[in-house]
């Protein structure tokens, strides 16, 4: 199991060491052969904006910050035990992420956690690992990053990532750690947005990162090819609600920082979509017939203006309900 050289710093209780204490929870996925192929065009165009998009930093707690740029929302915890970073954005964002981290404190780089395998959250793994981070994730994130993948809806085909991009510490159910004075839970969701999703809960800071379980303010993308489905998304949102209180700062995978009330609204939108579409499918209507009925018309004008339009969202719900 490759360990990052930065971890040997004396007097530093690294995240890796805390993780190793929970050894029973750890299970490295099988190592796979490294394969590389040229990037597909849609991937190149997804990566391009991250070259120039600045990273904004918002303080959520004494030592915990929200980082927002071109990819999914990131967070960083700073402190003498080393910096912890949640998500890695695109490959092309790495220099700006490292600049933003450097501007916060001189602490060394310690742990990078992937909320799931998607390109807007894990594409930057390799340069960030090479800069000093050890990568933690669910075992299926490692499995997917180390093998060729595709996302049909987005027209993306991805070769297996180089080994330096693979999470080196993985878990199947949960991983618990004390780090920089806070207590963290990393817990896997049942298949929801993908089959690799985890949440990260900082107890003391009262901050919850839900990854792409939560799209704040617009219909979510659900990756059917990675095991995603509407039932899991609803269950995931409900799990987030159970963990949060009225002062919890909730980081969605996409969209602005949220409260429990925002998450409740999102949860209710998903439930309404499921409850509108499931009976039509049960009656035997085709996907096209269901979409033509505009079953989510009540929320389409507010929630259908993001990345996923109402027809696409209805189709996903129909196929996975
Ligand atoms: Zn995302
Ligand atoms: Zn995603």
Give your account of this protein's structure.
With 321 residues, this protein is α/β, with parallel strands linked by helices. Helix content is 32%, strand content 19%. The protein has one domain: 4-Layer Sandwich (Metallo-beta-lactamase, Chain A). 50% of the residues are buried. Bound molecules: zinc ion (2 copies). One zinc ion binds next to helix 4.
CATH class, anyone? Answer: Alpha Beta
Q: Largest sheet, described in full?
A: 7 strands, mixed
What is the mean predicted local confidence, pLDDT? 90
- Are any ligands bound, and if so which? zinc ion
Low confidence ranges? 1-13, 16-37
Radius of gyration using CA atoms only: 19 Å
Mind telling me the CATH superfamily name? Ribonuclease Z/Hydroxyacylglutathione hydrolase-like
Give the proportion of residues in helices: 25-40%
Please tell me the total number of domains.
1
**Can you count the helices?**
11
Choose one word for the global shape: globular
Straight-line distance between termini: 39 Å
What portion of the residues fall into strands of 2 or more residues? 15-25%
* CATH architecture level-2 label: 4-Layer Sandwich
Q: Summary?
A:
With 321 residues, this protein is of the alpha/beta class.
List descriptors.
single chain; 321 residues; alpha/beta; Metallo-beta-lactamase, Chain A; seven-stranded mixed sheet; 14 strands; 32% helix; disordered N terminus; binds zinc ion
Topology (elements, then pairings):
Blueprint: H1 15-21, H2 41-47, E1 56-61, E2 64-68, E3 74-77, E4 83-86, H3 94-104, E5 109-113, H4 119-122, H5 125-131, E6 134-138, H6 139-145, E7 149-151, E8 156-158, E9 169-171, E10 174-179, E11 182-188, E12 198-202, E13 207-209, H7 230-243, E14 249-251, H8 260-282, H9 287-292, H10 297-303, H11 310-320
Parallel strand pairs: 4-5, 5-6, 6-9, 13-14
Antiparallel strand pairs: 1-2, 2-3, 3-4, 7-8, 10-11, 11-12, 12-13
Helix pairs in contact: 7-8
The chain binds zinc ion (2 copies).
One zinc ion (ZN) is lined by residues 116, 118, 193, 212, 253.
């Amino acid at each position: 199991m490759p360990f990052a050289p930065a971890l040997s710093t004396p007097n530093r209780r690294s995240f890796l060491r805390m993780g190793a204490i929970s050894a029973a929870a750890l299970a490295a996925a099988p190592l796979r052969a490294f394969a590389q192929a040229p990037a597909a065009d849609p991937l190149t165009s997804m990566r391009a904006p991250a070259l120039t998009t600045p990273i904004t930093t918002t303080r959520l707690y004494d030592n915990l910050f929200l980082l927002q740029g071109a990819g999914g929302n990131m967070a960083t915890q700073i402190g003498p035990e080393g910096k912890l970073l949640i998500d890695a954005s695109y490959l092309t964002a790495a220099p700006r992420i490292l600049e933003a981290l450097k501007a916060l404190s001189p602490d060394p780089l310690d742990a990078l956690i992937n909320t799931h395998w998607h390109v807007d959250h894990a594409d930057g793994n390799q340069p960030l690992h090479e800069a000093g981070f050890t990568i933690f994730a669910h075992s299926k994130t490692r499995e997917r990053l180390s093998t060729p993948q595709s996302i049909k809806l987005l027209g993306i085909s991805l070769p297996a990532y180089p080994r330096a991009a693979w999470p080196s510490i993985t878990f199947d159910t949960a991983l618990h750690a004390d780090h920089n004075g806070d207590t963290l839970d990393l817990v896997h969701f049942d298949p929801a947005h993908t089959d690799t999703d985890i949440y990260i809960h900082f107890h003391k800071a009262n901050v919850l990162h839900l990854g792409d379980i939560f799209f704040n303010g617009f219909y979510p993308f659900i990756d059917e090819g990675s095991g995603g489905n509407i039932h899991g998304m609803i269950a995931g949102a409900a799990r987030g609600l159970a963990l949060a209180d009225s002062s919890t700062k909730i980081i969605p995978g996409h969209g602005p920082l949220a409260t429990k009330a925002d998450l409740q609204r999102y949860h209710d939108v998903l439930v309404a979509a499921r409850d509108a579409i499931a009976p039509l499918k049960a009656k035997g209507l085709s996907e096209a017939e269901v979409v033509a009925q505009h079953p989510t018309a009540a929320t389409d004008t507010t929630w259908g203006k993001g990345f996923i339009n109402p027809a696409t969202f209805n189709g996903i719900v129909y196929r996975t309900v």
